[in-house]
Structures are given as structure tokens and as C-alpha cells.
């Protein structure tokens, strides 16, 4: 067994003070997202999505953020996937941006709603053609016999759709997550991290609180 207990480092890159906060969460999120993009690290829009199955068992996986506004975040997926099945019976969701190389995390808590077909279609046709074909190939989260079966199906569909536009699969879509809570975490020295949480109020305003690390 690898001894992971002594593995640690001190977080000294930055801090997050009250003066750095914005009245609403998205401008601060956007500032940090830009810092991540400028760092040229991989997948700055990668986000861990957590859902819960019918027995209360949580599951987490990485997806890519594909749009956002002042009230919501958007991602796309196979509608037969495990996450989609979870959201069908429990739309509550957590989305965590693990920007550890900048010693930061941002967590959004909210509720997911399916996107309309026109919204999904618009994004689907903006994807690389092979990615569109791959959406047809994979029945996400289903058990398969071997990778060769997946690759064989991909080549079959590539031939089938070689002429013209790739149609939108009926089992492929997306979600808009309306968030009501956002937490910003900035690593600090001696584990005295900075944590601020935004809570959405009924009148549409946000309250901000500092959390103990």
C-alpha cells in the first residue's frame, strides 16, 4: 500500500478577501475561469457532476461546461446515461470545478432541467462531425463486450452518415442547471483556507457568508 498520509503541500498562491467578492457569483466565477484558461492547463471547463440514484447512493463524473449565464450552467449528455436516469427521479445536482492547480474550487448547488430540442440541436451541429457520430455509437453507461464492438459500430455509422448532415439522436440532449448556492474555495497557508458561500434569496438577490475552513 502506498502511504498517502504524509502527502501534502502548503497553499500559498493567493487569497480571497471580502474586497475581491462580487455582488453576484457569476462575475467572480468568470474571473476565476479566465485565470484557469490563461494558465493553459487542460480542460478549464471540466466540471465534476454529482447525482444521486433511487437508493440515495451518490455518483460523480466529469463533464464539460458548455454554456452559462447569471442563473444557470449548461452541459450535454446521453439521455440514457446513468446521470440522466438519476436526474429523471431527482433533479438535484452538484457541480464542482476542481481548479486545484490554482488552489481553487467552485461548487454550484442547484436543480437540473432538460434543454429544449432546438437548443440541443444547435449545439449538436456545432460539434466536430466525428463527435456527432460518436453520440450515435455509444449508449452511455450500458455494458459492452469489448472496445472493438464500439469501434466497429463507429465505423459502420461513419459510413452510414458519410453524406449530408448527421441527425440528432433522440437519446441525446442536455441540461440547464439553475443554481441557488455557490461556494468559492481558495487554498491558504496552514489550512486556513478562504471559503465564501453565496445563497440565492426569494427576491433574486444574493447573500454572502464566510465559512470556516
From TrEMBL:
Pathway: Cofactor metabolism; pyridoxal 5'-phosphate salvage; pyridoxal 5'-phosphate from pyridoxine 5'-phosphate: step 1/1; Cofactor metabolism; pyridoxal 5'-phosphate salvage; pyridoxal 5'-phosphate from pyridoxamine 5'-phosphate: step 1/1. Residues 172-213 form the Pyridoxine 5'-phosphate oxidase dimerisation C-terminal domain. FMN binds at residues 61-66, 76-77, 82-83, 105, 140-141, 185, 195. It is an enzyme of class 1 (oxidoreductase). Its EC number is 1.4.3.5. Pfam families: PNP_phzG_C, PNPOx_N. Coiled coil: none annotated. Catalyzes the oxidation of either pyridoxine 5'-phosphate (PNP) or pyridoxamine 5'-phosphate (PMP) into pyridoxal 5'-phosphate (PLP). Homodimer. This is Pyridoxine/pyridoxamine 5'-phosphate oxidase. It comes from Candidatus Anaerobiospirillum pullistercoris. The gene is pdxH.
